[in-house]
Request: fold
Amino acid sequence: DTGVSQDPRHKITKRGQNVTFRCDPISEHNRLYWYRQTLGQGPEFLTYFQNEAQLEKSRLLSDRFSAERPKGSFSTLEIQRTEQGDSAMYLCASRKEPGSGKLFFGSGTQLSVL
Amino acid sequence: AQSVTQPDIHITVSEGASLELRCNYSYGATPYLFWYVQSPGQGLQLLLKYFSGDTLVQGIKGFEAEFKRSQSSFNLRKPSVHWSDAAEYFCAVTYQKVTFGTGTKLQVIP
Reply:
């Protein structure tokens, strides 16, 4: 497999701008997850998809965040009206369900909001 | 609600010494438990997992972990640490939505 791919690797934006990240999971993986990680913390769950259906979204997630997986393959995560507190590493992971439970992570998108 | 606690933020061990990283979980049913490792600039990699059966599970790179239901723990161990094991280690719980602990940063001194 080619692994989980995330684009871009780095994003610098000004406060108030919108940003969109893309994740391409491993092709046969039907589950796709988004996490956010800040320095010194573990990955924080944001949302996950089974094929194109968004099954759960974190209650901590602001309405400014939205994710899609329109054809059950790649996914996008959009943040509207970014704030400095949104600065973090955004991680995408995928796996096959049913399967071994092992999550395959991408390298992440590092967002810096100035 | 499910949660994971890793009480040790930072641990330093000498190369060749044994290692134990602690993990306690809270979950309302039989948990599925994982340990992941994250090296600087690297993605998260699964070390091992526990679903059921034998409570002592073996993973990659010589790591093992023991599930203790009575203590709600899933501690990670390695008998002899190598300098390349320096990284951050995350314990995680459940299956549908994976919840991670805050991590333990391991430093290995020569």
Observations:
- Chain A touches chain B at residues 4, 33, 35, 40-45, 48, 55-56, 91, 93, 100-103, 105-108 (CB under 8 Å).
- The first strand of chain A starts at residue 5 and ends at 7.
